[in-house]
Fold:
Amino acid sequence: MGISLAAEIAKYGVLSTSDHTSVASICLFATLLCACIVIGHLLEENRWVNESITALLIGLLTGFIILLTTQWKSSHILVFSEDLFFIYLLPPIIFNAGFQVKKKQFFRNFMTIMLFGAVGTLISFSIISLGAITLLGKINIGLTDIGDYLALGAIFSATDSVCTLQVLNQDETPLLYSLVFGEGVVNDATSVVLFNAIQHFDLVNIDFTIILHFAANFLYLFFTSTVLGVGTGLLSAFVIKNLYFGRHSTDREVSLMMLMAYLSYLLAELFYLSGILTVFFCGIVMSHYTWHNVTESSRITTKHTFAALSFIAEIFIFLYVGMDALDIEKWRFIRDSPGKSVAISSIILGTVMVGRAAFVFPLSFLSNLSKKYDHEKISFNQQITIWWAGLMRGAVSMALAYNQFTTSGHTDIHENAVMITSTITVVLFSTVVFGLLTKPLISYLVPPQQGLKHMSSLCSDSVSPKSFLAALLGNNGHEGEETHGVPQPTSLRMLVTSPTRTVHYYWRKFDDAIMRPMFGGRGFVPFVPGSPTEEPSVHPF
Amino acid sequence: MGISLAAEIAKYGVLSTSDHTSVASICLFATLLCACIVIGHLLEENRWVNESITALLIGLLTGFIILLTTQWKSSHILVFSEDLFFIYLLPPIIFNAGFQVKKKQFFRNFMTIMLFGAVGTLISFSIISLGAITLLGKINIGLTDIGDYLALGAIFSATDSVCTLQVLNQDETPLLYSLVFGEGVVNDATSVVLFNAIQHFDLVNIDFTIILHFAANFLYLFFTSTVLGVGTGLLSAFVIKNLYFGRHSTDREVSLMMLMAYLSYLLAELFYLSGILTVFFCGIVMSHYTWHNVTESSRITTKHTFAALSFIAEIFIFLYVGMDALDIEKWRFIRDSPGKSVAISSIILGTVMVGRAAFVFPLSFLSNLSKKYDHEKISFNQQITIWWAGLMRGAVSMALAYNQFTTSGHTDIHENAVMITSTITVVLFSTVVFGLLTKPLISYLVPPQQGLKHMSSLCSDSVSPKSFLAALLGNNGHEGEETHGVPQPTSLRMLVTSPTRTVHYYWRKFDDAIMRPMFGGRGFVPFVPGSPTEEPSVHPF
Structure:
């Protein structure tokens, strides 16, 4: 949907032959995406490789072939574009994550997630920035502005939530998944806020007012983005429930859900909020209310369509990063000093690892202090996994680096080119090497429980009908909650002993009494006159 | 998916604020699309208005409001872009049409459809061109090139298959639907070929060789496009069947089907073929083979996703045409001579009506000669309906007109601006006025059979589970075919008396013996190890 943008694009199409190369490059991409899907399917049982790494390697290979065929002149079949990434590829991924996330797990660990995502990212940012100033300052890399060093901190404190989603399994390691992924979402928002702050605030005369201003800015952004996402989600639920959409057409329901999800992201961007947070919460609300108000067919359709779109976008990003990495023009600049480039990349990787360790272990300790039961605490092995799973850097880092180190569309300045190539090196290395080691590491450190393992082997596909049913029961199964052994003491005592649970208890009461009668949801599906309604509990799909 | 294109687009996104208007315009469009869907739903029972007209009117209204707010300076929130239309909006619509078309009806009337689509479009083209040369020549409109007049013929012989889809009902009037829609698809291809021929052939020294060359060109295009579409469809069926995709993930199946469908269109464009024909036949093959090889969930998902995407694209086009129509710059040129503009539009509309009448009635007569049974013949009322339903002109005409009458992105030349505004007038008038009258006209001329009417009132939604089941049985129910009273005579006699049926009979034998065992299809669903397979015949959805 390029709209007014599309008009600026050079004309081609069926009729004119002017920009035939554009069709060719879209064509190439579609073919490569198909190849990645088929290869990913064939490698499914492999314990080392996952789809991201396949896509990244295929991207690198294709870039190399293009380089060869153009005789080392250019692999410029495409240039990394922030728009493409932020406007078209990221929203479906994050929305789907919100739509499919196990809400109970997410909200139960909400405080820990916020601690990791906001405070942790700040710690990580400080350490990477300090490390960059100290260590990179010793090598003469040509960066003079303090803002550039701080930007490096923001760029490399953005973890790759896309890669995390592929590496961890929601069914096998629910706690880890919700912590690492939830952290990733909040982390995205935090690093973008940090990055914006660095670009707009006066960094030379830093004082308490600026820090306060910055904190207020973050809280404002977090709050308004969430409200916007929740609001859009509730609006979609309200409209679909009260106008009986299912009566006439399932297509309208599906279309409306897609459009409103995308609209929430666009609105956030329009008001300079965090689209990532907005669309994530919109996904959560839509799966809690809207999804239950639509017909059976629409439920299956939306569930799988969102997953498939997100899947395509993920592969696309890795393919894209892989192909872009071989852009010869950027590498030309560092030809004279390869050693320096390796040094910079290693320093950055080192600070990233130290920066992440510096918050995962202390904050896990803090979080464990507030938990009463052992099974709720984050074990040391789990802490190592959290630390490791967040080391990968991906497309968000790339996009931020391009934004900071590109002057009017070019990376011609020597020091900028060096920073871009270093970013690419870090992204490639962390995704491929750390990514390859993650699956074996997790299965070594955190062996999944037998029962869960059995279930997940029954439905190795996370959206197969069986796990779909399981997700249904797991996500919204309020009835099943009592089995976790929470007694029903007086509310004041509850609030002291387990605040999160108490909040959850009152939320459920509020949800059942006010929200669900108004916005629909499980058990509050409206009667659709004239449509072939089925008992949702009998035919869950 | 803009890829290399996207790089050329002015930068915006979360971080920079440079091109915030682009986000705003995408946002506006998403909002309007939602509004159209909700209003279309509310007006569902209205017998006059349909979704296209709603979208067109909302588009006009929005354009008007923008004009007002910018103080009559510009409604330039977007410019009609051929790329957007041909690369992103048209493929899902045509693919979905092929995917959901009742194949038996389509192939039974194949000869009539080809007659209408190819020969009919040529007749229509000749009459409109002649009419333009004779009548428009009398008014001094400034067109001197014979090519411009012939281009007008090609532009206005392209019917609007999108609008047809919304007006006719596949369940109520299956014969009419397959004739008018099938004609529309072939017509699209023919008029694009004609248009290309006019732009590239030497039209001054026209002789028999050129006509022969032209005919060969058309046949080549038709044949290769069909082969490409069928080939891509079969490849997807083969891959999904033989690699047991359903074993691991339904998302991969859905993604692969989407990508390969789009790939077929892109490949056709890449090789300068007719993408419309290719993607249409790809849709037919995918629904006949691939669709049966995937899991239950994937079947429901693809069915509804393709329908929803097509639905969104359709509304988008009408909204777009409506908003673009009020672009003040184009209308400025005709301010001094409004009478002339009205005259041109009326002449074009007149020739369009005559041109269509000139082939619908004679060709229906010809087609009726070859039919033995009365119920197979096209009645006079049906002929009038076919004539009427094809009078609407839509986005294809707009796109072709912009291509012909736009010089380097501008419509500044007076005569070009006049032709563009005339095209807009014809498109708006035919869509709104003819469109509004079509529903009542059809229900007056061709009252649907009682049984069918009853069925369709049960499932007014054309993709509700019930009609989905009906479509399944109707589409692929080879068993039910014998009830139409075809005896099994010797093959030679059959070939003489009813050639289409004979072809169908041998096709079925070939399909059952060779194609379906290789590519899957109903009754040949592969056993998927480890997946929850259900009996497809018991649970058709």
